[in-house]
Write a structure and sequence with these properties.
Keywords: Cell membrane, Membrane, Transmembrane, Transmembrane helix. With about 300 residues, this protein is an all-alpha fold. The protein is built from 13 helices and no strands.
């Protein structure tokens, strides 16, 4: 169909459709932070992440078969697929443990600093996405926001654990590494489903045994935890991540990342709305600085049309 062909064409900027998809994705990812933290009360974090990858693998695999997508590891993507799968595993070990130690609001600030690391990596790895003076200024402003948030420990015990904050940052760097690996390897040429299957298969193999190092698998398991884990499997991973990988293959990495500043905002809002977390002036100030920085990093003035 012509519409489907248009969707799959490489774009040099974010159009209305892409922007709408990224906005919905940002809301979903912001909500996902709340869901993970709640499920951590019932299921050990790393085991939860492993279960999510295991069951989501079969959902995505079934979807790929139904859609007639090519599923192969002999097309030159195997090594890159294993690499991104390992990064995916490390990323979610950091995320799930971080949400066991720090607040969703703080985690949202640090975790969604991913666009900063992606812009830095793209400067060295992707032609046409180099940093200039404006982008460097944006990096400085955003990093200042991260330092401000990280250094504020608070006096009320609500500021979270610095180890959790650090894990959030390290996880976001791994996330950026996945995006960049896709852009510079043969994974760019394979199907979105195959990219995700690599990540899910490798992470399930790594995370489930690794979870044995973190204590009992089951905490205070309730029905709501099962429902929320199912939401993660079907909506966040099988739906949301498929969209993420599709967007990554269509739109410029740094332009796409510019929508990332919306996700921490949604994360902070949802943490207050659903978990009644206190939102300090530090969180608001850091969020503003990071958002301004990301906009500066990714803003590209339109070239004037020739007369």
């Amino acid at each position: 169909m012509q519409f489907e062909r248009n969707l799959m064409e490489r774009k040099d900027h974010i159009d209305l459709f892409g922007g709408s998809v990224l906005l919905i994705f940002a809301m979903l990812m912001g909500l996902n932070q709340v869901v993970i933290k709640i499920v951590n009360d019932g299921i050990q974090p790393v085991f939860q992440a492993g279960l999510r990858s295991l069951f989501a693998f079969f959902v995505v695999w079934g979807w790929a078969l139904w859609r007639g997508k090519k599923i192969s590891v002999t097309d030159g993507t195997f090594r890159a697929g294993i690499l991104t799968g390992c990064l995916f595993s490390i990323e979610f070990i950091f995320l799930y443990l971080a949400l066991d130690m720090t607040t969703v609001a703080r985690n949202s600030i640090f975790w969604y600093s991913m666009p900063l690391w992606m812009a830095i990596g793209a400067h060295f790895l992707i032609a046409g996405e180099r940093l200039n003076g404006q982008r460097i200024l944006g990096l400085i402003i955003s990093i200042a926001g991260l330092v401000w948030a990280f250094s504020d420990r608070g006096l009320d015990g609500e500021s979270g654990n610095w180890v959790g904050d650090l894990m959030s940052i390290l996880g976001s760097i791994c996330w950026a590494g996945i995006g960049l690996s896709v852009r510079v390897s043969k994974l760019r040429e394979t199907s979105i489903e195959m990219q995700l299957l690599y990540n899910l298969a490798v992470s399930a193999i790594i995370l489930l045994p690794f979870s044995l190092l973190f204590g009992d698998w089951i905490r205070d398991l309730q029905t709501v935890h099962i429902y929320m884990l199912t939401f993660q499997i079907l909506v966040v991973v099988a739906g949301g991540f498929l969209v993420w990988f599709w967007v990554l293959t269509i739109y410029p990495a740094s332009d796409m990342a510019s929508f990332g500043f919306l996700t921490p905002a949604f994360g902070v809002i949802f943490s207050w709305l659903f978990l009644d977390e206190a939102i300090s002036l530090t969180i608001i100030g850091a969020l503003v600085l990071i958002s301004i920085g990301i906009v500066l990093i990714n803003y590209k003035p339109k070239n004037p049309k020739p007369v």
